[in-house]
Amino acid sequence: MTTWFHDARIAVRSLRQRPLVALIVLITLALGLGANAATFNMVDALLLRPFPIPDVERLVVISENSQADPYPKETVSNAAFLDFQRDATGFRRMAAMSWWDVNMAGADRPERVLGHRVTPQFFSMLGGSAQAGRLLQDSDLVAGNDKQIVISDGLWHRSFGARRDIVGSQLLLDGVPHQIVGIASPGFAYPDGTELWGPLAFSQTDAADRTDHYLTVVAELPPGGTLDAAQSQLAALYERQRAISVDGTRGRQVIARTFSAAMVDIGLPTMLWLWQAAAVFVLLIACTNVASLLIARAAERQHELAVRLAIGAGRAQIVRQLLIEGLVMALAAVPLALAVAFAAVQSMKSAMPPQLVKFVAGWTQLGIDARVVLFTIAAAVATSIIFGLLPAVQASRTQLTSAITDGSRSMSAGRARTRLRRGLVIAEIALALPLLVVSALSAVGAQRFASGPQGYEPEGVIRFRLQLPEAQYREPAAQAKYVDRLLEIGSAVPGVEQIGTSTIIPALSADSRRRIAIDGVAENPDAPIIASFRSISAHYLETLRIPVTSGRTITGADLADTQRVALVSESFARQYLSDGAPLGRRIRIGTTDKTWATVVGITGDVINDWFANRHSPTVYVPVSQIPSTTVTLVARAKGDPAALTDPLRAAIASVDRSVPPYQVMTMTDALHERTTGLRFVASLMAAFGIVALVLAAFGIYGVMSHFVVARRHEMGVRMALGATSSQILALTLKQAGWLTGIGLLLGLAIAIGLARLMESALFGVVALQPSLVATITLTLGAVGFLASVLPARHAARVNAAGLLRR
User: Fold this and answer.
1) Is the N or the C terminus of the chain less surrounded, counting Cβ atoms within 10 Å?
2) Total count of domains within the chain
């Protein structure tokens, strides 16, 4: 240890003697290490440990998945859950939950509240407790006693002023009285920012249902239990269920996943690992830069190292000394790297819209903690070995006689050292090009989906989401009457150019899908036709300016007692009606309604959601013929759409004050919010690309500068023998061009492979564009050329006579 500390003191003294080199190394390493620390923090908080739940490693999510529905959430039927709960002895306990967003009245003002119906075991499994009152219990599942609710701490403070006397009071939820029995502990708002919980009770009919898959089921393994054993038992139970219900289990299989793997956003792992891979590329580029600097520095210290070898130092001691110098530099960069990581994480946190934070598990846990510090230190140690080993081994091979006697000429790099430095330049370019290509493809893809053609015009439109309570609007006639009255009052608001409604509109996280039958086409129960479904009013398509490319649109003359009609999107017509003229064909929507609807028009395709619902086959029907309790009002303004917020809120309240609008925003804001994740990918990848480009430029410049210094004696001899300045300039640029060209060829091969991988990983958002790849390749080549010009000009200005005299 004494020897190591002694070497460390020498390393510190050596760095102090060359402050400029030390500063460049520190900044270079800080960028590389900081980028990796920031991405590690995101991977750790959002993917590895997103849920601060006690014993979360023993929780699993059970799902009934199919090829058409591969996501693990909300895929279990009522009867399947009850069977698993009763017969799956490989679990200690089990709970189920389902979405239950409600219109809440009885607080300060009516509002839409995010809720879930849950079974009582839910709270104890996920670490929930009550700070006042009680949690849900088994008696709340009894019919007639299931109107009990628990509210979150956030809702208690926001809507009830944190009054403890609200326990036992009544609330109207969707027009039905419910009693508040408890207030959850602070911080418990699972899942996805839930603000109230009600009992998940099953009627006798519901308990036998195996065809409606909508439950999320969570189970806890017993101490010593394994996921594989539980999976085997579930598979055996599911085979028994297949014999009971062929339709309910057709094409499905039961799967048990770890809680963390199942509950994180389906696209998040791909994004995070892409970021981490990009950060590693940046760090490797930084390592090649530092290695080049250290090789140059070792050449300058060749005489010193030769003297140390001559007086008895072993080559292992030289290697150790230089490795310790690299380690000291890497560890010295850690504080600056943590500052870079902190700035990056804070920038990302501030860029995330507050209304989306609750849907990203682990987001609030982002920040520099002990795990990030330890990771950064470990990365610094590993990095010091990566960039320090080659220069150290190369320096230890110093030839004693020539190094001691040649004086200044010994600074000329030998062939091995020259080959090594050239290899580092090639490696740097070969690493930078793939990162630049991937970054550019991400940015272009994000721009295309966030700001490119959507199939409709979001500018100038505002939206209001509404959910009609079934207690008051159970009958279809009441639902249709509400929409008629809403449009009548809304169209009279000053500043409204056009107005319409739809059950689902673009830029929502939701979708509604129905099974479709086509007249004259035999149905395949194993591969049914499933399409997105929208109940729309007259003028909805015109409001969003979704084109009708053939036939007619839906009008006010399409009433409940007239002929059933439907519009289909171009993708639907192309995929399912290509065997004849689409107009006039008949389709049947759903499995219970046996009425045929005639296709009277074809609409353009729209991007409903960049993530998983782009240009999907879609069917539109008049809301007067198939009404719904789900209503989304869209209005195109004559001026600023935001100016319609208050007037249209008042219009909605005048129709029914118990139906509060929610998620009120302009369509441009909605599109911006919905593409937040995509823009995060693009912005972070762009930042990585810029850093890589800067590091590559400085790396090429540094190598070429030292190359000129190392060969200045040769340049003087050439000029003394008649070479001109322009010939020396051309010679130097030619050598730089060869290195850059080889690096570009290697990098291009890697870049194309990574781009192909991204095409499949980012859900079709990224598409390989040869013109873009060529532009980036030429750009990096130009940067390499410009970085070589200045050293080459220095080479051309060598004073031959003065240099030869020295």
Assistant:
1) N
2) 3
